Amino acid sequence: MENRAQKFSVRSAYKVAVRLKNQPKAEHSAARLHAWTWKEIWSLNVPPKIRTFIWRACSNCLPTRDNLHRRRVRVEPTCELCKQEPETTTHILWTCPFARNVWALIKGKIQKCSNGDSDFFLLFKQMQTKLSKQELETWAVTASALWNARNKVYFEQFQPQPHIIWEGARVLLEEYQSFMEAQRIA
Ligand SMILES: [Zn+2]
């Protein structure tokens, strides 16, 4: 009996030791994965201002209604475009009907990605694993174009059509990438 109890305690002590040993490792690899995600933002072949935009969106630094409200600015947290949900970064750039109408115009994997992640950084990570680099770049310029369009609605009372937003994003990316390619060859 004593022996068994002893054995048991040795075994559970061993398990605890293993758990403790593995824990920092698991945290480390999560941190490494995050580091890889941040690095990927800076390596996107998109105009630098779009890289900065995605970085700000992933850091939750955009002045969305929800963020302003949390920082005690006296604004309603609700999205002005659909008037249904709080205007978080993920809402305005991904789940709002205003954004969905633009994403629906893009063929391929992008629009099939889930709407589940409320955190924009996690949404970006999801895109990173599901999309090719070129698709991720398209996703980034479109997200940025959506933010610009949102600002037009909020501050200029002008709402661009979904296909105009998408065309603008597509042309911007195409022109930037062929410019970069020409630089590389020259
Ligand atoms: Zn909305």
UniProtKB/TrEMBL annotation:
<protein>
    <recommendedName>
        <fullName>Reverse transcriptase zinc-binding domain-containing protein</fullName>
    </recommendedName>
</protein>
<feature type="domain" description="Reverse transcriptase zinc-binding">
    <location>
        <begin position="8"/>
        <end position="103"/>
    </location>
</feature>
<dbReference type="Pfam" id="PF13966">
    <property type="entry name" value="zf-RVT"/>
</dbReference>
<dbReference type="InterPro" id="IPR026960">
    <property type="entry name" value="RVT-Znf"/>
</dbReference>
